[in-house]
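Per reviewer request, we include the raw input and output of the structure prediction for the construct analysed in the revised manuscript.
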Amino acid sequence: MNILIAYGTSEGQTAAIAERIAARLMEAGNAVRLADLEGDKPEPGDFDRVVVGASVHFGKYQDRVTRWVAQHVAALNAMPSWFYGVSLSEAGGLTADGPAAAQAVLDRFLKTSGWHPVGSTSLAGALKYRECNWLKRRMLKAIVAKAGGDTDTSRNHEYTDWFAVDRFAGEIARVQSFAGLSER
């Protein structure tokens, strides 16, 4: 299978997750193309399957990802496609609402976009203080401090559950046909 993994990333964790998914899919014998939607605008119809990833910042996914999905929603709904959202909320204990907040953002995005992927998941991200400018670092620290999370801004803090990423990649690799997709 020829699989596209299109993503939006701000500090790099969504890209790292995309790379991990790509590695697992290639191990399963698939051809994979990674596309950072910051500058790359691939056509979903050129692929057999599509995976899209985006990270949550201040309650929403990157505009470039939401625009790309809106532009290609018909193609995405006509093929096996998946979505993964990356959020600090998914790590629990880092924000007041925890995983429920991450799931709410994901659900709202899918409903608003009209996209009906075969599967979706919310994954814990990373607190990459060192990749943020001074203002964003201060804002993140204040948000995380309220929830009792890691406030040491001298280093990054990773919360991604790589086993969960591997499970998600495995789900994608197991879909072998379009059977049943028209009944979604």
